[in-house]
Write a structure and sequence with these properties.
heterotrimer; A alpha+beta; B mainly alpha; C alpha+beta; A: alpha+beta; three-stranded antiparallel β-sheet; about 20% strand; B: mainly alpha; Rna Polymerase Sigma Factor, Chain: A; Arc Repressor Mutant, subunit A; 2 domains; 7 helices; about 70% helix
Chain lengths: ~180, ~180, ~375
């Protein structure tokens, strides 16, 4: 490895590298170092793993959303001003502001995260597709011993095959992420 | 430049309803993860929306309004923690959602995972916590996180790096 | 309000008791079964059982535990059925299917199909039925097929039926050669394989955000060539297969093959085996051979992530030609390559071994004889 890239980056820089927050020069320097340094590669791998674990914090607690929404609207109504007697004329600056907002958004477009991932998960207990914080779970009878459930997973489909105790038939449940 | 008539109250209410529906869960999540319990998070979510909805003209541009609301939510949560000096918070203020045919072991595992992630958040300052949530859970770009928290991009990068480094050490320490 | 961790265990113990939440589904309005006018199957009865609907977050969770009774109105025996179960198609979690292979339903006979699925619909609740059921396909004993085939169920059911014939022949041959005891030995060997087959759990992620991570993780991972297992009489030759691996995570393999059959091919699947750091081998899946890897797989053993992947192998597991014909490996070819212990048994073998387990050797002998008539 060239002497230029021999020095290990700081842990903070590797943490930012894993999250894609570094500028192009810093990123290039670290990439060049990683080519020849397994220890730093392992550390970057840990930060990748950490990021996907932290995403689990996106799971919401049980909530009555309608009740909360209702509270908000009641609070807004309570604080609402009396409507004025005369109509309020305002310049339509919205188009100009929208243009500015779009231009600002354009700077971020290449960094914008895409929609939450569809994650398919298969185990002997069942198969599941999660999309963001929503889950769908195919039910495999809890009485099935593990070895009686066979699953298959592709990027789009999760399948679980088992003997249905009620019908005695081989039954295959599939869930689709798209 | 054209002049336009102010919208009717019914139209205003409709827009508010749409705005709340579109942003409620996202805002609640950010606040909940910063302050750590659902009851406070509900109150603060209400406060954030009321602040946002009193400036109705901001709602015309949907994207700008969502960003601006996020900023209000983050500030509201951070200010709450500072004022109440809540460096710690309690996790799992409700039993985990029961999933059909989930064994107690599986429920316990999910709850345990949430618990130890929340324990890790305790190690962070309010801003480090907010930066980590907004960047790695909400997926906002670093520059936007900086706007929402109210600091420079360089400072927010420092918060993010510190948060990840502390979290990584914490999770290594929890491994058997 | 919060619950301290000391109380958590009590809450969790009660959580399973909370499992029965939500409202029962109204049979009259919840389910709609749509069948074409010329459908060979008819719905005799729909029993929603304890199906329920509840609201969670911004979604309606439909917990279906229904039993349908269908009748074969065609003049041919039915070997397989696939039903589409649809709550909505706007977001993930709203679409599922139930397939029943290894059937042998005579003309005019009826049979049950259990629908045991949980599906999601975003709120607010729409007008109309919550769930629509439809027939994606029926496979008959002569390999003819009826149905819209939106889920590619024809190919899947043809593969199952070919495997069923292949594996029944194996057990029939054992019975013919060595009598009932010879059959017993083979079925016990099958049960032992099913019990001892090494198993992995997996998650696969097909997130666009992975494009960024994947590009950067290319620097932390490595490309691993799959060792290709050549099966005799395979119509295609796997030329190369590789997968990008990082720790216990792997992208679905990139596969190149050469078509020796001279016939145009519609679909190719490859059996994908992974070896962990300790040298133990597992079936990761049967993946379509596609130009671009479309999923990132994370593997687990029990609840622990797989620590490192030390090697991979691949073999041709199914080919569908453009004329609709299908190739699957012969049982002997799989046995010779040592794959029987790694692959799940076919649905028919699972059914036959379950029949032996629950009703004994004589019932198995009689069942095999039915297919010889």
């Amino acid at each position: 490895m060239s002497a230029l890239f021999r020095r290990h980056p700081s842990e903070a820089d590797l943490a930012l590298f894993a999250g894609g927050e570094l500028g192009p020069v810093a990123r290039w320097r670290i990439e060049s170092h990683l080519h020849g340094c397994a220890a730093c590669r392992d550390l970057v791998g840990e930060f990748f793993e950490l990021r996907s674990q932290v995403m689990d914090l996106g799971e919401l607690p049980p909530m009555d959303w309608q009740a909360l929404s209702g509270r908000i609207h009641r609070a807004v109504e309570a604080g609402r001003e009396r409507p004025r007697a005369l109509p309020m004329w305002r310049p339509a600056w919205s188009a100009a502001l929208a243009m500015l907002a779009l231009a600002a958004a354009g700077i971020y477009v290449w960094q914008q995260p895409a929609a939450p991932a569809a994650v398919l998960d298969a185990s002997a207990g069942g198969v599941e597709v999660r999309f963001g914080d929503q889950q769908a779970l195919t039910l495999v009878n809890a009485a099935q011993p593990e070895t009686q459930v066979q699953w298959q997973l592709t990027a789009d489909t999760a399948s679980a095959r088992y003997v249905d105790p009620q019908t005695g038939q081989i039954t295959v449940n599939n869930v689709y992420s798209q | 430049m054209e002049l336009e008539r102010a919208p009717s109250l019914d139209l205003v209410r409709d827009r508010e309803q749409e705005f709340v529906t579109a942003n409620l869960r996202r805002v609640f999540l950010v606040i909940y993860r910063i302050v750590g319990n659902a009851a406070d998070a509900q109150d603060l979510t209400q406060e954030a929306f009321v602040k946002a909805l009193t400036r109705r003209e901001q709602l015309k541009d949907e994207q700008k309004a969502a960003q601006w609301l996020g900023r209000i939510a983050t500030h509201t949560a951070i200010d709450f923690l500072r004022q109440r000096k809540r460096a710690q918070f309690c996790e799992l203020d409700a039993a985990p959602e029961p999933r059909h045919n989930d064994s107690p072991e599986r429920l316990a595992l999910r709850a345990e995972k949430r618990a130890y992630l929340n324990d890790g958040l305790r190690l962070l300052t309010e801003r480090e916590r907010a930066a980590l949530i907004l960047r790695d859970v909400e997926g906002l770009p670093a520059a936007e996180v900086a706007v929402q928290i109210g600091c420079s991009t360089a400072t927010v990068r420092s918060h993010i790096a510190n948060a990840r480094t502390k979290f990584r050490k914490y999770m290594r320490g929890r491994q058997p | 309000m919060f619950i301290r961790s000391s109380v958590l265990a009590a809450c969790l113990a009660a959580a399973s008791a909370l499992a029965q939440t939500g409202e029962p589904l109204d049979p009259a309005s919840a389910l709609r079964f749509q069948l074409a006018p010329d459908s060979p199957l008819a719905v005799l009865a729909t029993n929603l059982g304890d199906s329920r609907v509840e609201t969670r977050g911004g979604a309606m969770v439909l917990d279906l535990r229904a039993t349908l009774t269908l009748r074969n109105n065609s003049p041919k025996s039915v070997r397989g059925v696939t039903l589409l179960v649809l709550a909505q198609e706007l977001t993930a979690g709203g679409k599922g299917s139930v397939a029943v292979p290894s059937l042998n339903v005579a003309p005019g006979a009826s049979f049950p199909v259990r629908v045991n699925l949980r599906l999601l619909r975003p709120l607010p609740a729409p007008v109309g039925p919550l769930v629509q059921l439809g027939l994606d396909g029926v496979l008959f004993s002569d390999f003819s097929f009826f149905g819209p085939n939106r889920l590619e169920s024809r190919r899947t059911m043809v593969v199952w039926e070919m495997e069923a014939q292949r594996d029944r022949q194996h057990f029939q041959a054992a019975l013919a050669a060595n009598g009932p005891e010879g059959l017993r030995q083979q079925i016990l060997a099958s049960l032992a394989r099913q019990q001892s087959r090494p198993r992995l759990e997996a998650q696969v992620n097909r997130a666009p955000t992975r494009a960024l991570s994947a590009a950067v993780s290319a620097l932390t991972g490595k490309s691993v060539q799959l060792a290709v297992l050549k099966l005799p009489e395979a119509p295609l030759e796997l030329v190369s297969a590789s997968s990008h691996v990082s720790g216990g995570e792997a992208h679905s393999p990139h596969i190149e093959y050469s078509n020796r059959s001279g016939r145009p091919v519609r679909h190719v699947e490859v059996g994908w085996l992974v070896r962990d750091a300790g040298g133990r081998e597992y079936l990761a899946g049967s993946v379509p051979a596609s130009a671009a890897p479309d999923g990132v797989y994370r593997f687990f053993q029990g609840r622990e992530p797989l620590e490192g992947i030390s090697g991979m192998r691949g073999f041709l597991s199914q080919v569908e030609f453009s004329d609709g014909s299908v190739w699957i490996p012969a049982r002997r070819a799989l046995a010779d390559q040592g794959l029987l212990g790694l692959l799940p048994v076919s649905p028919e073998e699972q059914r036959l071994s379950e029949l032996y387990r629950t009703r004994g050797l004589q019932a198995l002998v009689e069942e095999l004889a039915r297919f010889l008539r």
